[in-house]
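Appendix B, record 7
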Amino acid sequence: MTVGKETMGEQPIFTCKAHVFHIDPKTKRSWMSASSAAVSVSFFYDSSRNLYRIISVEGTKAVINSTITANMTFTKTSQKFGQWSDVRANTVYGLGFASEAELGKFIEKFQEVKEAIQAQQCGATAKTTNGSGAATPVASATASPLLAARAPAGDEPPALSPAQPKPAENDEMMVHQRAHSVSSTLQGGYATVGRAPRGPLASAGAPPDTSNADSTEQQLRYENDRLKLALAQSSANAKKWEVELATLKSNNLRLTAALQESTANVDEWKRQLHQYREEVARARHYATGKGGDANEVEQLRQRVAQLEAELTQKNEELAQITKSKKSEQDAEAKLAQSQLELALAAQDGQRQVIQALNDQLSRQIDELSTIHREINTALQT
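Structure tokens (predicted):
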């Protein structure tokens, strides 16, 4: 059967939109984008072979072709991302959804398919055990056991034609075929994978399924690499804040030097003012005591007026310079204080992120140790 095309024996039972990812076969730690945008991901049921498959096609390329087995487990690793391992395809598939609700619907359908497969296996085992006894009633040859399970108990549901699926199925497929933008957590072809919940242990009578433990170990390594990256980024930010603090100190020293220079200029102008006043006083005393001629007195008065004008001008310049220096110093001080507060706040945020990553890594290490102990216990039983 060609992937993505329906035949008389294989029919879609659920469809949704998601971004498809494959695990990197070399590193087994990072994700590679398998689809350029959100594509349709469908559950198919093959009534002729009694198989369930997950299929997704982009253009002419099949990005997902996974046969579901009873041992498969779909793991929700973040709010909008989930994954499952396919041993037959030798890969790990990842799906990124536009919302957490769509991810929840996919998880429900995956679990429902697994339960149907397990029920089929139990029915086949019971039929083999009973031998020539009465066989367990089954659904129609062209309908999925999932759809048959939804029918009311009692009479056997009628067979459905492949060209005439149930109206509820059409409604369900139309609801889940909406196009959505890719989740904000999927950037650059990679997905951020969070802590995976623990899966159920294998039974004591059968070999344990270590795929979940391997997946948890891969996620633990990925979280460890991400923690190292966060620590390196924090160190880089600390160096940048040290450079900014040194710049602020340099600006403060420059403002202090300018203020000292302005103070020295003020002292010099006060000294000149004192000299002018002494000169004016001597001129007046000379004009009054000696009683010089009128021309000399007039010259002295003009000189006094000139000195007073210069004094007024110097006072105005002094006031303007003092005001300008003060406003500039206040602005620089406010800017330096705001930059320092922003740097401290960013450093606190980085510290909290690193602490959260440390806590998460510790929890995952504890869970991984618990899983290994339980697996060893199951193997020894």
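Remarks on this record: DSSP finds five helices and ten strands in the chain. Confidence is low (pLDDT under 50) at residues 132-143, 148-209.
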